[in-house]
Amino acid sequence: MTSPVDLPELPELPDGGLPGLFEGTVPPGVYRCDSVGPDVLMQADAANWTGAVIDLSDVTDKAEFMNRCATGLELPGWFGHNWDALADSLTDLSWWGETDGYLLMTAGWPGFEQADPKAAATAVNVFTAAVGYWAVRDAPLSVLLG
């Protein structure tokens, strides 16, 4: 582990879970969850949401986190592999097309959070800002950290 960092307290996905996110009874947000799997993407697709998984298995630093974001989210070529570029990418999801909502999920979050708490805290801040941006638009964004 690197230097001590105050990691943000993040809620677990509330009662109502994924169906609640898709129906609007669970507010958009950044939530911890036990795990994510292909069934989550199928549920998102069935609800006309666009979803993606960022595989953070064995990720120990910001550089690899950015690489995995680029791959998992299929970010456009202009993605600059830094926090500002990630924030810009998450507030311009036009390449994902028309949708009723966006669901970004991570697999392996606890390991990344432990390996690089500073980068994990910054990532949560970027995700939270993007959720706020989309919360006042027609297609909300939620992030599940599993």
Automatic annotation (TrEMBL):
<dbReference type="InterPro" id="IPR035905">
    <property type="entry name" value="Barstar-like_sf"/>
</dbReference>
<feature type="domain" description="Barstar (barnase inhibitor)">
    <location>
        <begin position="52"/>
        <end position="145"/>
    </location>
</feature>
<protein>
    <recommendedName>
        <fullName>Barstar (barnase inhibitor) domain-containing protein</fullName>
    </recommendedName>
</protein>
<dbReference type="InterPro" id="IPR000468">
    <property type="entry name" value="Barstar"/>
</dbReference>
<comment type="similarity">
    <text>Belongs to the barstar family.</text>
</comment>
<dbReference type="Pfam" id="PF01337">
    <property type="entry name" value="Barstar"/>
</dbReference>
